[in-house]
Amino acid sequence: MIRALWTAGTGMQAQQLNLDVVANNMANVNTTGFKRSRVDFQDLLYQTLQPAGTRTGGGEVPSGVQVGHGARAIATQKIFAQGNFQQTENPLDLVIEGDGFFQLQRQDGSIAYTRSGSFKRDSQGQVVSSDGLVLQPAVTIPPDAVSISIGTDGTISVITGTSPTPQQVGQLELARFVNPAGLNAIGRNNFLPTAASGTATTGQPGSQGYGTLSQGFVESSNVSVVEEMVNMIAAQRAFEVSSKAIRTADEMLQIANGIAR
């Protein structure tokens, strides 16, 4: 009976974490560049009451007796499927069609990586994220620029008020990882590399498997509200079943205690 109480309790804890992840996915359904997460579960240790293959008077036992001790969440995996594209008409909004991440320089000099291509100009003309992190390689737009053009290969050209001829002012690069699911999400649409993700390799958009860029679009979240609603209902039902198992085990213990009296 006691084993059932603890086993069902692990199931409730696992489903609580599952619901937490689903809630975070749904909360970020309108977050630009957000990637949904999925919880991976695994069963816990088994207690072997009788090993398989044990010799008895009737011969060899074909299957043993094992009792599991519940479940636990082993990983929350980021799903880097492409989100839908939303047209904005903002010349500094960019979307990556394919593989790759934008590079942002943080305050401590390290590089963060993001799929959110919602960029702006700061007071010095530098292209920055909504948090003010400078896009890398750094690009400065001239103050008299009247038109900004960004090619699919990351080439940035401007037309100024004094010259109608396009002038190239920068070249964007994208970063790729062997295992993007191993990146460490630090919030604000940014990721940091880990030992599991591997080190970043950079290259020009459209070359060697890197995605291409489209100007005037941003990538929406890849969260499906319908799918998350189904996952939420499934988590709720699994939580209820585990709680009923605890209630049943408690009632059986109550019966056993009554017999002792």
Question: How would you portray this structure in words?
Answer:
It is built from 2 helices and 22 strands. It is an alpha+beta fold. The protein folds into 2 domains: 2-80 and 223-260, no CATH class; 85-219, no CATH class. The strands form 9 sheets. The protein has a 5-stranded antiparallel beta sheet, with no helix packed on it. Helix 1 packs antiparallel against helix 2 (225-260).
Task: Characterize this entry briefly.
With 261 residues, this protein is an alpha+beta fold. It has helices at residues 2-27, 225-260; strands at residues 37-43, 46-50, 55-56, 59-60, 65-68, 71-78, 85-87, 94-97, 102-105, 111-114, 120-121, 127-128, 134-136, 145-150, 155-160, 163-171, 174-176, 184-187, 190-192, 201-203, 212-215, 217-219. The longest helix has 36 residues, at 225-260.
How are the SSEs placed, and which strands pair?
Elements: H1 2-27, E1 37-43, E2 46-50, E3 55-56, E4 59-60, E5 65-68, E6 71-78, E7 85-87, E8 94-97, E9 102-105, E10 111-114, E11 120-121, E12 127-128, E13 134-136, E14 145-150, E15 155-160, E16 163-171, E17 174-176, E18 184-187, E19 190-192, E20 201-203, E21 212-215, E22 217-219, H2 225-260
